[in-house]
From TrEMBL:
GO terms for molecular function: acetate-CoA ligase activity; ATP binding. Gene3D superfamilies: 3.30.300.30, N-terminal domain of ligase-like. This is acetate--CoA ligase. InterPro entries: ACAS_N (IPR032387), AMP-bd_C (IPR025110), AMP-bd_C_sf (IPR045851), AMP-dep_synth/lig_dom (IPR000873), ANL_N_sf (IPR042099).
Amino acid sequence: MTAPDGPQAGDVVDPPTGFVTQANVAAAEAASFDAPWPDCWAAAADRLDWHRGYDTVLDSGDGGPPFRWFVGGELNACVNCLDRHLDERGDDVALVWEGHLDERVTYTYRELFDEVNAVAAGLCDLGVGEDDVVTTYLPSMPAAVAVMLACARIGAVHNVVFAGFSADALATRMERAGSRYLVTCDGYYRRGEAVNQRRRADNARMALPYDLDATVVVDRLAAGSSHTEDGARYDDLLAAHEGTTVEPVPRGASDPLFRMYTSGTTGEPKAVTHTTGGYLAQVAWTTERVLDVDSETTIWGTADLGWITGHSYVVYGPLSLGATTVLSEGSPDAADRDRPWEIVAANDVNVLYTAPTVVRSFMKWGTAYPEAHDRSSLRLLGSVGEPLDAETWHWYHEHVGGGDCPVVDTWWQTETGAVLLTTLPGVESMRPGSVGRPLAGIEATVRDGADAVCAPGERGWLSVDRPWPAMARELATASDWGAVADAPERWRYRVGDEAVVDEDGYVTVLGRVDDVLNVAGRRFSTAEIEHAIVQVDGVAEAAVIGRDDPDIGTAIVAYVTTEDGPAGAAVARDDVDAAVAAAIGAGSTPDEVVFTPDLPKTRSGKIMRRLLGDIANGEDYGDTSALRNPEVVGELEARQRE
Ligand code: WTA
């Protein structure tokens, strides 16, 4: 094990007794399945309400992709999240919204059902039909949840675009999805500044090669502020359809529930489509078993709805179980330092699910903030998105959880839809710095370059060796799957992460090994950022790499050459930032831009990004004789020291 912040020998924390006695899964037998794979997954599907029962758990054709889960089954995700709870807990709180301006709004299941139905009726009125793609471009707010569930109700496919993305990024994601419907807002506050979202949405519409069929605008900043000329007002839509109930459309288990774009290894956003049956089954199952949520639980997942965590563990997981979900606008480490703990205390939050970067911010602020508030409602702490190093783990455990909440470090991806690796909180001991083992029903290994399973302690690629229900549809056919060398009838998915496994099967994830950067738990594509930078007048070439950063995991560093010789003469750093902000969003601008006369290249002219990464990280980069221009290395090192 070479990672400095991975698990330390002997650092093992058992689940607290007080937690075990109430855990949804408390015993080893309950954690495993009776039935062999893939039939074991029937247990997850059986927790859902189906319009028509499925015939087969998994259809894997002739052994390989495409894989289809719960074949023959029909269900509706909105019914599972709302309708089925109305009788028993219609008056229980489904959703609490903690808005950026200290707003707190609650919705009971009945109230959310009513709003979702009115929105569904409104969308139908605007012409939205089954399988149409409806894009939302909204901050995390109740209307965004209502639109997601309304789409699910009528069999439309939602495509949530993170509100911080630029107009260009929105247009690309709409066009690629063939989306003709947009729900946006007048504006919103981001880190204290008003963002004119309506204008950005208008710019995106102009950038599209086709006209939209309908736009709906939500008043986020000021009532009545949204224009109505070329868009319907969300409030008008609600008023017009108040009290309407829309018949839910039964969807096939493999029918798309939503589309989402993430960063892949190319310059284009990567489409990920999640299914109605497999996705919902595994998301509900893991919310219950891993995050220990039931209908009495209040969970606060701090992720924005624009990311997969917002979909799976803020909306679909908690609501499918009849729990109370807390939706917060803006990142908890962007605002007032007391606010996170006020949210916990005011809502009696039982489960806090956040990212290591957020916990590291809390850590820097100091223990006084959590200590000043009542955190006795907390029962479990979760982490997702990037490696949770041992030091942060212990701080989270002790200073947020008071030493008696299990910490679950959950590994998964946009593509996997739901958690695949973690520790079951009432059953397995935790090893700070390590994620844990594959959940029952999941088979994952760490493999070397030759595809052989690595010995404990040996670094390799994390690979998932069998399909799982919440897998994205794209993975059912994509080249991400390859035949397993030592089992020709089997297939495996290379996730793009490097990992190491210990003697007991606990996996420590070290980070991405492809051209995807993980910055503060968010995914960025180096190619996409490079593409934006080379659009700047005067820029010749750009290479983007990640530099290890103690706070945000990875910092974005861009190496840039300019057309007119002397480095940086004609191009300003601000131009680079502006180009990236316009193409992707302000959150993607590089933390550092290094202007350089040349980039290290192989003899065939390929930029050696690995070498740049090693230089930026102060690592030994070894032999440079394969370079066409080895002299550039000394130059870059000199700049690094400046
Ligand atoms: C990283 C977020 C270490 C990993 C749900 C993965 C993690 C990428 C963890 C997916 C974890 C996620 N420990 N690394 N617990 N969870 N990652 O698609 O590199 O935004 O491939 O999904 O985040 O990011 P995505």
